[in-house]
């Protein structure tokens, strides 16, 4: 009932997270023999929290995420009269160290430009080149990249449109609030145009739309996008060298399908985080970066801004020296 109630308001990925988190509660019920919500009280809440911490072996951040969903579920049960009023308020989330709450993995600007330089020289206009360059330049979420159609790209005016289209399986994380127009510099537009003309698979998706990024079978799935990113961020791919001392010929991670096993490869989100940090280091105002990346200034600062204190100081200095 809870999942059905939230389906209309949550993005598909968020709903899946809620389902996964509440499955942990069902495991607790099975393990302890708990079977009637009318018996739910503060002690049961405490026991569930301890169960996840001890039996689940989860860290504080994961525990906090799961309890947060559980608290919303209990509040839903309160409204149905299934549990006592005020029980949800008794569910205390663990204190999270800020350094643990925000994952720090990102691709550094220097390394991102190494990847782009390699692709420009040896794979110009390829799917990999267009995809990585667009993601680095715009700091888009993988779901946004997945949702772009050819018609959303406007090379003459130099921008792309992002639309929330849940009816044809391309929702945006923030729904209508994620819809926007994102400016592209001229050279990015040129790379995208050449990719579309020469290397894009001329296919439509299951809804008759023309995706920007494709496979021979239709729209390029988000997991396929991640796999491409993993593959091209391996140092052996763009530099021909392995910083981990592996023989590239024999290394398991050197194959495309196993590229995520390389300790230096990254997925899509570290590109977004690295791009945002790069924009900030280039002194693009936070408000502009916030709008461009579709993330609130508070979340941007907490989860995406990986500027060092020295970088922040130098930027402040460049502004203060002009006073």
From TrEMBL:
GO biological process: DNA integration; DNA recombination
Residue intervals of the Tyr recombinase domain: 92-317
Ranges where the record places region Disordered: 304-323
Entry keyword DNA-binding: yes
Location of the Core-binding (CB) domain: 1-78
Domain of life: Archaea
Alphabetized PROSITE patterns for the sequence: CB, TYR_RECOMBINASE
CDD domains per the UniProt record, alphabetical: DNA_BRE_C
PANTHER family: INTEGRASE_RECOMBINASE PROTEIN MJ0367-RELATED, PHAGE INTEGRASE-RELATED
Name of protein: Site-specific integrase
Organism: Halorientalis pallida
């Amino acid at each position: 009932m809870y999942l059905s109630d939230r389906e209309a308001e949550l993005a598909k990925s968020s709903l899946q997270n809620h389902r996964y988190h509440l499955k942990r509660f069902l495991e607790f019920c099975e393990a302890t023999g708990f079977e009637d919500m009318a018996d739910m009280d503060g002690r049961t809440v405490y026991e569930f929290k301890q169960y996840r911490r001890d039996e689940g072996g989860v860290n504080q951040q994961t525990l906090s995420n799961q309890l947060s969903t559980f608290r919303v579920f209990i509040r839903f049960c309160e409204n149905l009269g299934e549990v006592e009023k005020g029980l949800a308020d008794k569910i205390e989330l663990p204190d999270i160290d800020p350094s643990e709450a925000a994952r720090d993995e990102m691709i550094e600007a220097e390394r991102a430009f190494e990847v782009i330089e390699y692709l420009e020289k040896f794979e110009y206009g390829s799917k990999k080149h267009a995809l990585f360059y667009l993601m680095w330049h715009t700091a888009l979420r993988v779901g946004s990249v997945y949702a772009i159609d050819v018609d959303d790209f406007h090379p003459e005016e130099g921008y792309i449109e992002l639309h929330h289209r849940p009816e044809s399986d391309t929702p945006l994380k923030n729904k209508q609030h994620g819809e926007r127009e994102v400016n592209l510099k001229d050279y990015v537009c040129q790379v995208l145009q050449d990719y579309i003309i020469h290397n894009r698979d001329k296919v439509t998706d299951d809804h008759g739309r023309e995706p920007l990024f494709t496979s021979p079978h239709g729209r390029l799935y988000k997991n396929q996008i991640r796999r491409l990113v993993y593959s091209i961020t391996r140092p052996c791919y763009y530099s021909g060298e392995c910083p981990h001392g592996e023989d590239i010929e024999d290394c398991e991670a050197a194959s495309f399908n196993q590229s995520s096993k390389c300790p230096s490869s990254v997925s899509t989100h570290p590109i977004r985080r690295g791009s945002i940090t790069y924009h900030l280091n280039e002194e693009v105002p936070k408000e502009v970066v916030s709008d461009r990346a579709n993330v609130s200034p508070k979340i941007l600062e907490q989860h995406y801004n990986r500027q060092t204190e020295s970088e922040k100081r130098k930027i402040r200095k460049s502004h203060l020296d002009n006073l």
